[in-house]
Amino acid sequence: MTNIKRRDFLTKSAIGAAATGAGVIAAPNIVRAQETFNWKMTNAYGPGSPFYVTGPGSPEDFCKRVTEMSNGRLNIQHFAAGELIPALEGFDAVQAGTVEMNAANAYFWAGKIFAAQYFTTVPFGLNFQGVNAWLYHGGGLELWHEVYKPYGLVAFPMGNTGVQMTGWFREPIESLDDFNGLKMRIPGLAGKVYQQIGVEVKLLPGGEIFPALERGVIDAAEFVGPYQDRRLGLQKAAKYYYTTGWHEPSNVTELLINQQAWESLPADLQAIVKNAAQACNLDSHSWCEANNAAALRDLVENFGVTAQTLPDDVVTKLKDITAETLETEAAKDPITKKVHDSFMAFRDTHREWAAISEKPYHGIISSKGGMS
């Protein structure tokens, strides 16, 4: 064999061997990329609930998007509260691997993880724009994963209501003293604040709020905003509807995932899940903004509801108590302190920008001479 032919033979042999080796290495990845996954998602909210279960940007919408984007490789069957497990047992079900996903709000798990509440909302905290900026670009999402890692869980934001109403009251609120002895459905960090002024805090699933308020088991209730509140029929049980949004300037829907199940997904399916969740985060908030104004007008004009802001002195006092309460609670636990410090530092920086952007603009359009 001539030297030229030998070189040709050796080169071709080497190329063939390399190609065979690459095929052997790549084969498992190809097989894994073609694998189909069938998952279950539970939900803290009842069947048919707008935003929280059905509609644009809802968990059902998320499941549909994932199936379509993955071309059927990841199929998620959705179960509203009570269809597979009770409303507030999603955390345990996902942690145990009974289901792969759950849709809820992280502040429901405050009894297990105090820091989780910061990933839903913080009183006098960040609005929709601000909380998304913190989560996606300010280290918030990384902290969320750090907090949940010991529990074998991963979480992503999947929705946001925007600012919420203070709530429904059977009697008018004229001073801070009116809160003393009040029985109120209110979850999250705001409940800690209300306790400091004598409120008896109740944590009830959405479906139990109306009957409790109607029967006088509770004196006041906070849920979401005009559209969802009207659907629950809260206007039939109370007529005083207050706002300021102090307790929930935004409210994040949590997509909770079993970490082992998450890590079993190939990278492209993980990317689909994350992008579908982020799309629903935007779409759900847009839906709320599109529907709340008309719902509020209907409540006032057709149901005799009085919609108004809390008295200024009440809000001022609540703000002072909030700062004290959050500092005290955060100091009890290192991981909560870490999340708290990150959130508050970002909030303070973000407020500097909001003070010269959003605030002046809203002042102009809400004034009598402003644009309509």
Automatic annotation (TrEMBL):
Q: Where does substrate bind?
A: Q164, R185, E222, E248
| Gene Ontology BP, a term | transmembrane transport
Q: Which UniProt keywords apply?
A: Metal-binding, Signal
Q: Which Pfam families does the annotation name? A: DctP
Where do the annotations place Na(+) binding? F223
Q: Does the keyword Hydrolase apply?
A: no
Record bears the keyword NADP: no
GO cellular component terms listed in the entry, alphabetical order: tripartite ATP-independent periplasmic transporter complex
- Please identify the protein, giving its name as recorded: ABC transporter substrate-binding protein
Species name for this entry? Thalassospira profundimaris
